Amino acid sequence: MIYKLIICFLSGLGAGLGTGFAGMSAAAVISPMLITFLGMPAYEAVGIALASDVLASAISAYTYGKNKNLDIRNGFVMMVTVLLFTLVGSFVASFVPNTTMGNFSVCMTLLLGIKFIVKPVMTTKEAMNSVSRKKRITQSVLCGSVVGFICGFVGAGGGMMMLLLLTSVLGYELKTAVGTSVFIMTFTALTGAATHFAIGGMPDMWCFIFCVAFTLLWARIAAKFANKASAVVLNRVTGVVLAILGSAILIVGFFK
Predict the structure, then answer these.
(1) Which of 38, 36, 37, 29 has the alpha carbon at shortest distance from 11?
(2) Which of 51, 30, 86, 33 has its CA nearest to residue 203?
(3) What is the pLDDT of residues 32-71, one digit of tens each?
(4) Residues near 132 by Cβ (< 8 Å), separated by ≥ 6?
(5) Which pTM does this prediction carry?
């Protein structure tokens, strides 16, 4: 039990920091940890990770929204598009042989971390809000379709893809990009978790409770810190967190 608690604590620590700082999906951290160190079936591990993501993303979205760093209107448009095209991507993937893109999310996490360190996002809210409503909705639909299709086809990478597109394509400043990303991830994770538990049944309850609690705790801490930090500090901290998590998950992968 102590060993299980330690693994769940480390999983929740990494997932919570990734969610609170960068809108990263908890599944990218928790799943490989539970599978590798606890020998848990992949489907069950992903279900626990998605369930952990729900509350962690929700509390992060609340914190970012409270600090006026959340674009609910365009976030809702993107969320609907992501959910729709996730179904399309999953349908197309069912006709394609297994791909070699299993490390897609991990590699993106590492590269995006390096990107934030080397080339930080310094867009201001004034510049972000200067974009017309019509253009922003169009961008949200197009980006949501790309993220959704890739998530459905590859099965991972949603949080990182959203953060990349929100900052690079839609021109969001970093805090609003993360806040909007976790807002969307709350609903996508809830949908995924409900589906996993409906199909696979309830998971190991102790792992479920530990992972949800620790991820929620660290996501709350990270989100509160992120909203008080300056743009420069947040870029560097986010970059370091993502780079460390990406590297750690790659190393964990060698234990499989």
Answers:
(1) 29
(2) 51
(3) 888 888 888 877 888 898 899 999 999 999 999 999 999 9
(4) none
(5) 0.84
